[in-house]
Amino acid sequence: MSPFQDSKPGRIVILNGAPRSGKSSIVEAIQADFEGPWMNLGVDTYVRQVTPPRYRPGIGLRPGGERPELEPLVPRFYAALYASIAAHSRLGLNVIAEFGHHDAHSRPLGILRDCARQLSGLPVLFVGVHCPIETIMRRRLAEGPERRGIYIDVSADAPIPVPVLAWQEEVHRPGIYDLVVDTSINSSRDCAEQIRHVLDAGIQHPTAFERLAADMP
Fold first, then answer.
1. 82-92 pLDDT per residue, tens
2. CA 70, 71, 75: angle at the middle one, nearest 5?
3. What is the dihedral of CA 168, 171, 176, 180, to 10 degrees?
4. Domain count, the chain
5. CATH number at residue 106
6. Helix or strand or coil: residue 111?
7. Structural domain boundaries enclosing 32
């Protein structure tokens, strides 16, 4: 028997939002300011540090038509990542993880529902990270050369790229969250404090993930 088997489950915070909406900055604030270890098990870590380069989907960890030969693997990638999140929580470790759940092209709600079911019985706070497209574009245009080519190039003289618009339109469907924060009007630390306030007050049931897992509206 593991000596940690009787540990109280660690809390889990899942951030969901479009690229450049400010999720990573909230992760950094939580890791810096919250009590105890908060393990970063988000999609950026999984894609950039764990997944072999030739198996990385074109835009985040999702099936979306960019790499059709990889689509059969993406649900398995998600399942493995969420199983890891669950394992950390069951060993008493808190987890903060950022995602861009975007199933619109091939499996509407399928991956998100399956992920929610993987965390059944664990204390999960699902947070929608909102940010207007104008702010996201300003952030992209201000990026230094070290970030260019990671996602998609943008230009002040060109229309907003179709993938950027797609993220903005699809990432918050169905929009079932325990908390919504807006990084265009609040700093990352302010958003983290909103999350802390909800955690301290106690997560209300049914949680967003409980509703998603049960196909509740």
1. 999 999 999 99
2. 115
3. -50
4. 1
5. 3.40.50.300
6. helix
7. 12-213
